[in-house]
Amino acid sequence: MNKVVLFLPSYSGPPLGPPAGLLCLASPLRQAGYEVSIIDAAVAPAWRRAVEKETNGALCFGVSLLTGPMILEAIEAAVCVKRLLPQLPVVFGGWHPSLLPGQTLQESFIDIVVRNQGELTFLEVVQRIESGQSLAGVAGCSCKINSRIHHNPDRPVVQRSALPPPAYDLADFDAYEQVGGERRLPYASSVGCPYACSYCTDSVYYGRRFDALSSRRVVQEVTSLVARYGLRDVALLDSNFLVDRRRAMEIARGFLDSKLRFGWTFQASTDLLSKLSDEQVRLLGESGVKHIGFGVESASPRVLARMNRHHQRVEDIFEAARKCRDAGIRATFNLIFGFPGETEADRHETFEVMGAAACQYDNVTFSPNVFLPYPAIPIWPELKSLGLREPERLEDWSALSPGRFELPWLEGAAYRNVKRSVCFFVLHDKIAHASRSRSMSRFARMALRGIRKSTRWRLKHGCFRLPVELWLLRARNRLTASHSLLTGQALGRSPAETC
Known about the structure:
A seven-stranded mixed β-sheet has the order 2-1-3-4-5-6-7, with helices on both faces. Strands 8-11-12-13-14-15 form a six-stranded parallel β-sheet. Strands 9-10 form a two-stranded antiparallel sheet. It has a domain of about 150 residues: Cobalamin-binding domain (Rossmann fold), CATH 3.40.50. The C terminus is likely disordered. It has 20 helices and 15 strands. It is globular. By secondary structure, the chain is an alpha/beta fold.
């Protein structure tokens, strides 16, 4: 009985690749002599049978999850394990349980929560379980002792460079390629971001601490993995890759000098990209960077101030787009609409600025979202004063997805108006991109030009009733789908399908 089973529920969109978080947990466990079995529901359609099989004779069952719909599969898996093996400890970890450990432990099918940086905490938890010892005193762990919830002190943060590399040999890259269509490596070269945006859980989870692996280690590990597993793409999971710009350029130069040809993507803020010279951004492109995601969120100075994004400037948006275009890099701008206090005039300002950027630079796409209140974000006190009720149970947080979570300041007609305005904005942009296609017939181009005039009029005047254009183009999902901030891939269903 030295086996530990780790489970990742599926999430919307194609799988990015092997679960980096679980592979990180697996490394110290294996070094300590434990067998680790990883079940990723994204590539294991029969994950329920796999959970039943693998947990038989295991020491414990660990689940990693984020806030949102994936909570439902996490609950289903945990309930299944408890039904079959009532005495088997069920451990929850990841962002959501770390932010709300007490509420998570209120569920009868969860015994333990590993908070925040989990590698060493989870190893100690497993060792205590194996030896039959109490979990009292295990730093970074919350648990039930005599049926009462007990929170041990936080564990001091360990530099990522002191932790072993993820156990990538446990990853079945063939399976992810078969399901997602890409042979891609998700890789975290750093964690954390120094900014303190009021809607973001990153500053809460990492405390605005930026912890990065050395450029030498990143280049050595990534290139070795690319060569060993025949990978074509690397998606850096970093919250803000360009915080240390010198390190970023050393990594780009190392990838280029390796002579391996693979694409890579990352996320950054426009202010940091704008501080790079044109030559430095071209080096990024030459090294294989094909897409950068930018958390722009809004072009309204008033909304940006409410978001505590004082580092975000409109001119940086255009500069980032230009530098990326000149380097042959696609750019996706993330946008948040419906933020508390946002007015129709604020949205119109964002539409105008973003539309101008897209007209000037054909490498720009957008990932628009309606604001979602993630747990423990700094703005929660204000949200409560506006009448927002925080979910009281783990399962209730599964509704935190667009269209399912009600915002008191954005209900009924107001919500439909915001959603349709976003749909028309995305449609307007996608038609502009499609119209540039040389293979498109003259008639099709004229038809799209007419629709684009209509969508521009709607955006200018804020008129979104009877969205005939969206209804007509439901069959053309590629024109209206939003995009992943990390990879630039089209995501899920078209917004037009629900407008």
